[in-house]
Amino acid sequence: MHHFHAPPQPDVPGGILAQLRADHARVRALFHAFAMLDPAEEEERERLVDELCQELLLHAMLEEELFYPALRALVDDSLLEDAALEHDSAHELVDQLETLFPGDDYFDATVAVLAEEVAHHVAREETLLFPVLARAGLDDALLGERLRARRLELEAGLAAAPQDIDGMEPRGLAPTLRGARERRTRPR
To answer: Which domain of life is it from (predicted)?
Structure first.
């Protein structure tokens, strides 16, 4: 049985662009590892998809909070609107995967569509948006420090024990992300 564990998110040196590229590489590695698994390895396939979806949600939050706002005055609004739509589409696929299990009719197809959409999105970012930020003269290192700090905050929220339910709506992004991959269970 294969047990792929993506390398932990290192404290990537460099600015925001280096960190986002490292995230993209990590997600590509997770998709590749999933594709290499035997369909009979259901537990590992489920674990990998959960890890992949968690990575995608965290990455999208970081981009939406830090990367896209830095680009707002530098690119046509339509490019950022397209990126936001691509994030929304990926979120919908992640939501679908929360209800699916390996062996379900649409599990593999949903993962495949997510992989295609993410590959397209990453290519657009790396070829259209990254060069704009690089040429703009913004402080890539400062943005990188902010991204690292925000990632640590979100990851700390993920690692924290779930809060007791108090009947109120969740506040902040970390509770939303923490609950994002709580898969419904079913007897096997």
So the answer is: Bacteria
Q: Is residue 45 part of a domain?
A: yes
Tens-digit pLDDT profile for residues 107-141? 999 999 999 999 999 999 999 999 999 999 999 99
Residue 105 lies in a domain: yes
Confidence check: pLDDT of 8 > 90: no
Its domain, for residue 142, covers: 16-158+171-180
| pLDDT at 160 exceeding the cut of 90 | no
Do residues 16 and 143 lie in contact, with contact meaning Cβ atoms separated by under 8 Å? yes
Residue 24, SS3?
A: helix
- Which DSSP state fits 75? S
Angle at 149 between CA 143 and CA 151, to 5 degrees: 100
Residues 6+ apart with CB under 8 A from 98: 53, 180, 181, 182, 183, 184
Closest CA to 30 of 4, 61, 62: 4
